[in-house]
Amino acid sequence: MRHVIALDVGGTGMKAALVGASGELLHQARRATGRERGPDAVVEGILDFAADLRAYGAEHLGEPASAAGVAVPGIVDAELGIAAYAANLGWRDVPLRALLTERLAGVPVALGHDVRTGGLAEGRIGAGRGADRFLFVPLGTGIAGAIGIAGRVEAGAHGFAGEIGHIVVRPGGTPCPCGQHGCLERYASAAAVSQAWAAACGDPDADAADCAKAVRSGDPRAVQVWQSAVDALADGLVTALTLLDPRTLIIGGGLAEAGETLFTPLRDAVRQRITFQKLPTIVPAALGDTAGCLGAGLLAWDLLTTTDGTEVTP
Questions:
Q1: Which of 102, 170, 231, 266 could form a disulfide with 182 if both were Cys (CB 3.0 to 4.6 A apart)?
Q2: Model confidence over 189-210: pLDDT tens digits?
Q3: Per residue in 110-146, is it b (16+ CB within 10 Å) or e — as a string?
């Protein structure tokens, strides 16, 4: 059965699948990145995982994979196939596409940024399915974004498109590791809410999920922390909406797991801020932590499909 390898590399773990032509998951697996052993070990682990997946496909599906797609964090030059930098994995300028192509006996390999790859999946087969323009914003340790245009995700001239977490929403505010002060992700990421709620309630182990529970129970301290984050998020999103005019706004990541505790006040806050802009549909992400892996599979299948939709053989 014809299939591709899809691999999503995170800071601590890797998710992988063999994906059929209709998007069906024919085999799934997970491994640790082994980042405690250094960046070279991480790269070797990725190559070994991909090779094992190829061998599994050859044995159990009747043929080896036709292509592979890999999503990685950090700064990615997708055009050149280089994983340029990832702070949590410790690597710099890794020619990952070339290394994988060699290890996988010459099949074509696509390399993508993890958030943009997840956004690709959400836009094509997830919460944004059918939308010609969408913006995918995961709220996790930080905040990033994926700009979807006609079934593709825009990377920008230098690979930095969609970094809305570094829109300044509170000028002169909290310092950000990027060098600015008052960046959106310092106020509205899951990590920022966790930090603010831990300080407010006096429990250093409290996190954003605990804050959401306290909001639902009516704790005024939690309501204040939560509303502050929602207001900052709405400010950043309205800037993005003004520039991009998406039809659908997809919110994912850990903070989105709060459901309507987040989405009801967020929709209200965005609605209150817009003037001439058109209000997009604001929806939760649908694919969860499988988005990156599914998106990597889409990248791989794109390598095997011509612009008119005809499948090609590598």
A1: 170
A2: 999 999 999 999 999 999 999 9
A3: bbbbbbbbbbbbbbbbbbbeebebbbbbbbbbbbbbb
Q: What is the mean pLDDT of residues 254-277?
A: 97
Q: Which helix (H) or strand (E) holds 177?
A: none
Smallest CA-to-CA distance from 126 within 302, 290, 305, 309 is with 290
Q: Give the start-end residues of each E strand in the chain.
A: 3-9, 13-20, 25-32, 68-72, 75-77, 82-86, 91-94, 109-113, 133-138, 146-149, 152-154, 248-252, 281-284
- With both helix axes pointing from N to C terminus, report the angle between 220-244 and 190-201 in degrees, rounded to the nearest 10: 160
The phi, psi pair for 150, rounded to 5°, reads 50, 50
Tokens of 152: 């593709």
| pLDDT tens column, 74-89 | 889 999 999 998 888 8
